[in-house]
Amino acid sequence: MSAATADPHTVVMKFGGTSVADAERILNASKRIVEAAEAGSRVVAVLSARGKTTDELLAMAHEVSERPHPREMDMLLSTGERISCALAAMAINDLGREAISLTGSQAGIVTDASHTKARIIDVRAERIRDALDDGKIVLVAGFQGVSTNTLDVTTLGRGGSDTTAVALAAALGADVCEIYTDVAGVYSADPRIVPDARKLPVVSFEEMLEMAASGAGVLQLRSVEYARNYGIPIHCRSSFDPGPGTFVLDEEQTMERPLVTAVTHSTDEARVTLTGVPDRPGIAGEVLTALAEANVNVDMIIQNEPESEGSMADMSFTVPRADLPGSLDALEAIRESIGIAGIASDSSMAKVSIVGAGMRSHPGVAAKTFSVLGEAGVNIEMIATSPIKISCVIHEEQVADAVRQLHTAFGLGADAVLPEDPSGKHRPTVKTGDGEA
Description:
The strands form four sheets. An eight-stranded mixed beta sheet has the order 3-6-2-1-9-11-12-10, sandwiched between helices. Strands 14-15-13-16-18-17 form a six-stranded antiparallel beta sheet. Strands 5-4-7-8 form a four-stranded mixed beta sheet. Strand 1, helix 1 and strand 2 form a beta-alpha-beta unit. The chain contains twelve helices and 20 strands. It is of the alpha/beta class and about 425 residues long. Helices cover about 30% and strands about 25% of the residues. The chain folds into two domains: about 10-180, Carbamate kinase, CATH 3.40.1160.10; about 265-410, VC0802-like (2-Layer Sandwich). The longest helix is centred in the first third of the chain and has 16 residues, at about 25-40.
């Protein structure tokens, strides 16, 4: 998929589940969409399922099946977003603007055939462009598409409406992709754990990628990848507050960043440990291939090499907690052929991370992180690093304390003083649904 030539003043607005949870909120979202259109923008809005609808649909599936078939699960889950779009289109039409709601397949969202975790491979947006040319507001059901080879309905996984919105923004050459949520932007930590967490005015794509991968739930990881690859500015903002939120931009568009930007966490981790693994080339590749074929995403990996000749190795890695049953099934299938002595798992793991572009040029961040956690009595089970991130796997019950201690130690509170930016790059001028920001 390649980014299209920019259409005049095009904005993509995505509203999350809490933003369309009931009739009043659907009307509120519809008014914001109409306001953007009245301001002169061509508007495409992507809507999530209402409130807890997706969770309710999942519960329905498990009422009739212990392990629902993935294809039928996608057929079921895709209905929630369609309901939201149809209702919003009705409201917009009553507000005096013509609107049309489209399913993911009608909107041209083409994916691979990986049910419940499909990836977008193309956006054929001709029908959307035709509707925009006719002066219509286009509402697209998020989180879904159609498989290119089977023509089956597919879904993109949790948070997939973000990816739908950014992919449409890239295909349409939109000026900005606005992500509306129940929070005012991206924060230096989860405000539910750290009350004095501060809203970040701007975050680089690289930082946001690391934050999303480390548990920050404001934006889906793949949506940030799309935005970075196609140069689409993201404006993450509140559905209920008209003020600016957080801009996610190329690093050269941002001001010099502080040492650490944010502390993120995830309580959705499980650890798998393989004991008695033969010490020969290719074993790790066979293990990870089996997991990849089961559509399991492996995060941290540690392999302990044996000290003496002929001894066996151990290998540990983390996977999303929801993927643990599938991971164990895939590993049991190759256990005998590879010669693995034992498979153990722990579903009570969590991950805490610090992220910051400033870490590239400042030594000692890792030492400080480990010292702070040690002084707080937090035991580190696994460690992974990148140039702008340090992640530690810890036990779930220690997450809140670890986040608070790190947030305080790196001075990330609401009273933190950000460096001045004489160029003004921290407030980029992009066309939004409310005019320029």
